[in-house]
Specification:
Layout lengths: L2 H46 L12 H28 L10 H42 L9 E6 L2 E11 L2 E6 L2 E6 L3 E6 L6
Antiparallel strand pairs: 1-2, 1-5, 2-3, 3-4
Helix pairs in contact: 1-2, 1-3, 2-3
């Protein structure tokens, strides 16, 4: 490396120590923007795909899924606020009159921003993980036992598995998921009791 190159690198390093706070704040702003994108993407995915509700899940999944989603929301909100605070700074009543005071404050502020960005990153990962676990649990969790005996009804129209609710007007009323199916008794070829409906 020539003397001129070494001098230029030394000048750049000298300038960087005075621009450290601005550089750190820009990194925090980038993290805040990325966090907003992640949160928006998660919201879009949850709106597009997922169960309509968790009321038909078996215990403890009926309570686990909402608790996980609430925890994820709390973590993502906290991560966003932490990233905003890191990017924007915090108000202070101190007036810095000397170069040493400004230098010490700048070093402290840079360290605070780095800690805040690290915390926001951890909260984001925790929030995304909680959402992922909640969504997977809602998809794979067993359905709660239906009211009424579970039966498999085989008829000319096909095979149904669900809760036998009633007979009315020469038809069986079978609850399959959230829907009520009517099967004419004349079409029924076989009815058998089961403990669970296979998916």
């Amino acid at each position: 490396m020539s003397r001129l190159d070494a001098w230029r690198w030394a000048q750049k390093a000298q300038r960087l120590q005075y621009e450290q706070l601005e550089i750190t704040r820009k990194q925090a702003e980038s993290w805040r923007t990325g966090l907003t994108g992640v949160t928006t993407l998660l919201a879009a995915v949850l709106v597009v795909k997922g169960r309509d509700g968790v009321g038909d899940l078996a215990l403890p999944y009926r309570w686990l899924v909402p608790v996980l989603l609430a925890a994820a929301l709390a973590m993502l909100v906290q991560a966003t606020l932490t990233a905003v605070g890191a990017a924007s700074g915090r108000p202070s009543d101190r007036t810095l009159l000397t170069g040493e005071d400004l230098r010490d404050w700048t070093r402290g502020e840079v360290a605070r921003i780095e800690r805040a960005v690290t915390r926001a990153r951890r909260l984001t990962v925790g929030g995304v993980a909680a959402v992922a676990v909640a969504v997977v649990a809602s998809w794979l969790a067993p359905v709660a036992a239906a009211k009424g005996p579970l039966v498999v009804v085989e008829s000319a129209g096909g095979r149904l598995c669900g809760a036998l609710l009633d007979t009315s007007g020469g038809s069986l009323i079978v609850k399959v998921g959230d829907n009520h199916q009517l099967v004419r008794l004349a079409d029924v070829t076989r009815i058998r009791s089961v403990t669970a409906c296979s998916r």
